[in-house]
Description:
Elements: H1 27-31, E1 40-43, E2 48-51, E3 56-59, E4 64-67, E5 69-70, E6 75-76, H2 94-98, H3 105-108, H4 118-121, H5 129-138, H6 144-150, H7 156-180, H8 184-191, H9 195-200, E7 205-209, E8 212-216
Antiparallel strand pairs: 1-4, 2-3, 5-6, 7-8
Amino acid sequence: MSEKQESCKQCGRCCKAGGPALHTKDLEMVREGKIPLRNLITIKMGELAHNPITGKIAPANVELVKIKGKGKDWDCCYLDATSKNCTIYGHRPEACKVLKCWQPEELLEMVEKDTISRLDILAEDNPIRPLVEEHAKLIRCPDFEEIAALRPNIPEPKRKALQNLVNEDIKLRVFAVQEHQLELSEELFYFGRPLFQLLQQLGAKVRETSEGLELRW
């Protein structure tokens, strides 16, 4: 008979499942720079992501800001692979404090509830905030589940609309990077993953042309 687990064994398995989403209780910690923006990534509302409750990939119902992963398996970037310890344990996010892998109910209750967004983190006078607001307004996630169901027979008008959206996304990102000297690591917080990368996961082939990116299905 196996022994019932009642405490953390520091095996690192939870951290190897990816970084946690941030919640309201984490806001001041992020604003104070204890977790820098370069170590965060935004999951936009509607983006396909793993839902811990269902265990399936589904559109996110809210915008999420998460700690980035690293490596092929997307381990939490704060996991020390050798010791299997958290390198920011003293100021780890609320979800990590609540997490008990042997008793996950409390953490599951937090999924997509009381989470924080990019605009919660960015001060009103932050010079890049207007660009983030514009990007959030103009570059909304398409219905990825519909696209997955239609492929490869996506109607031509929808293909053109997606291609236009992909290029508008790139245009805004390039402007922001040049105007504010952003690094790629920061871009993933401010704007999330590029739309063309999200569509590649659904089978789109991307080709660079003189007029911009071209999608092929």
